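ugh finaly. both done.
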Amino acid sequence: MILDLTDVGSCENKEITKEVAIELTSFDSKLGTYSFLEKKPFELHIVNQENKQMLISGETDVVIAIPCDRCLEDVPTEFHLTFDKKIPLENGEASEDEEEEDAEYMIGFNLDVDRLVYNEILVNWPMKVLCKEDCKGICKKCGTNLNQHDCDCTKSELDPRMAAIQDIFNKFKEV
């Protein structure tokens, strides 16, 4: 959703509150595509501070389905997103890093709400997602979800450095 903020940017000390909706249907990144399970419209409060900077604030909650890192079952993961951005207006003093960051979701006086939400989700993305603390994962040989069923695969793992010695024992094993 693109929000036109020309009226706020042109009037000194003007404040508005707008209800905006998230139009994203999924969160796409290099890690994969994750669908939104829950998202709600929320309010953004926008303030022009003496024609020097624009303050954008608001908060919302979204729920995204992320696969468990061990068993790959979808886990509903809640994100509480808080927006508190300061965007320098024309002729404002800002470092180059801030300008590059702002350019992603603010082009002129047009605010890309979906890009703003995307950036906040990216920053808050969890390092590891588990369906439960004691998740058993999947079998490395047959791919069975060990939380649901046990498999008959051998569980012992041999040290690959000892594979040559294991082959010698297997050749001379009495049958």
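ok and the 2nd:
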Amino acid sequence: MAEFNFQGKKVYYETYGAGEPILLLNGIMMATKGWAPFIENFSQNNQLILVDFFDQGQSERMTEPYDFSIQTALLGGLLDTLKLDSVNVCGISYGAKVGVDFAVNNPKRVRRLLSFNGAARMPPLLAEISKSWNEAAKLEGGMAYYLATIPVIYSDIFYERQRAWMDKRQELLVPYFGFPGVKEPLVRLTNSMMTFDVVDKLSALDMPVLVVTGKNDNLIPQREQEIMVNSIKNAQHVILPECGHASMFEKPMLFSSLILGFVNSKNSEFAV
């Protein structure tokens, strides 16, 4: 529970535990508090580092448009603040894209890279879906924005099996999205993804990389993760069945196990 100043703006972060460091990066509509159910697991034998990007959680709000470069630079400032030369970087969705961007621009600072429900570019379909989010953000109240953004994040299987949980999410998020000033930062975060494309830089990565796909992801299809796997020489690919875009909620034990196993394995290569 701390903060540092980066480019004249406040950045909020949290650290827990000690050991091999894991930097866990938020999805677009998340904040550090969203990782609360995972903190005990991830900090038992590791140093867990959480951070709110600009326009998220308790970090400062922006006023002008920006792209991923400022979020990537923010991560470098965080590692400098913590006096860490390198960390294991794990992101989901928006955080996965920022993590990939950080890795291709700062390869020496990334020990191992984990991308959940991510991509190395802005997929055309997601770009169009994101425009619908921004249109919904112009409407009064929170219901239109909720319906445009939240249901599609989850697989149809999860939505049916966990309908009571989804109903509680709606009760919580619809009023939140209706509060003054909540949707404007989300629009800026959404727009920051639009020009993202580092596919041509992936071949330069040489750290171990784990790419995780939700088989039933409605936002970022498996093809986008296959682009990453086919472009990165040390990439491994895991496909989670009956799982949508929010893999940490739909498959929390698998999510945790994959991260902890990949990060804490002593060797990245084994003699056969």
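summary for the 2nd one i guess: DSSP finds eleven helices and eight strands in the chain.
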